[in-house]
Amino acid sequence: MNAPPAPYAIDVSKLNKHFGAKHVVKDVSLRVARGEIFGFLGPNGSGKTTSIRMMCGLLTPDSGIGTCLGYDIVRDSAQIKRRVGYMTQRFSYWDDLSIRENLDFVARMYEMPDRKTAVARALDSLGLARRANQLTGTLSGGWKQRLALAACMLHGPELLLLDEPTAGVDPAARRDFWEELHRLAEQGIAVLVSTHYMDEAERCHKLAYIAYGELLAQGTAAEIVASQGLATRAIAGERLTELSARLRALPGVEQTVVFGATLHVSGRDRPALDAALAQAAAEDSSLRVEPVDTGLEDVFIYMMGRADVGNGKAGAPS
């Protein structure tokens, strides 16, 4: 059965999911275009994995509607699974098989008619050919990651769903992985990827941030930063942790976060924020205050703090 042409790889509306009394996904609506890398961010337990599994037909929502690659996410889950590559958080291939043997096994699972050609193509495209006969258990995290991506791509999927694929992988391997994702996106493949890394988030075409099962914001990185209306000032000086605690008690200061040798102080009321910092600088002449662009990490920390307060948790982190 062929689905009608769909402008979006994922188009879901008001998805909900409960596990017992816990409401883990609340009215999530999301669109991912073909050829787009869409970053899905949020703390552990926020509902990211559950949302991803519902979007690709692996888990039935309690309510809500949607399509994946033009197929209904409830009625046509078998069709979706054949057209989607799903990479889980945990490496799930066999350590006692070689790279080639693992890929051949996956090709058999997909009942691919020409397994040998498909495996050879996957080995070449991900730079695995020279290690094809190496036992998987001897691979580093970065090479295991390449194997997992090669397995996802074996059957020529139109959509990749990647659940924290770079966790525990060194920075060089993460960079190479993201270059590969952009190459795939240029071929028209849509990518939905969950991540905790801000540098990875900034490499996505669009982003969504989820906390306590609710989507708090979505759009480009610039749109999400602008949507919160935060002004940010950077303070250099001594005893920044003590200063952070004092500043949080002042009007206009909504968030303080230490970034290395500087303290980022943010708030939506710019005059009140600047007045508070002028007061602090007058009391300590060693402090240097300057305006900086509000970063994506500033905004996500701010949104998480507000979500915590709304759900009866602690306030924004310092």
Strands, total number? 14
Query: Which bin fits the share of residues in helices?
Result: 25-40%
Strand percentage: 25-35%
Strand order in the sheet with the most strands: 6-7-8-3-9-10
Order of helices and strands: EEEHEEHEHHHEHEHEEHEHEEHEH
pLDDT averaged over residues: 90
The helix tally amounts to 11
Uncertain runs? none
End-to-end separation in angstroms reads: 54 Å
Radius of gyration in whole Å, from Cα?
A: 23 Å
The geometry reads as globular
Structure description:
By secondary structure, the chain is an alpha/beta fold. It is built from eleven helices and 14 strands. The chain has a six-stranded mixed β-sheet, with helices on both faces. It has a four-stranded antiparallel β-sheet with strand order 2-1-4-5. A hairpin with a 2-residue loop joins β1 and β2 (22-33). α3 (99-109) crosses α4. It is globular and about 75 Å long. The N and C termini lie far apart (54 Å).
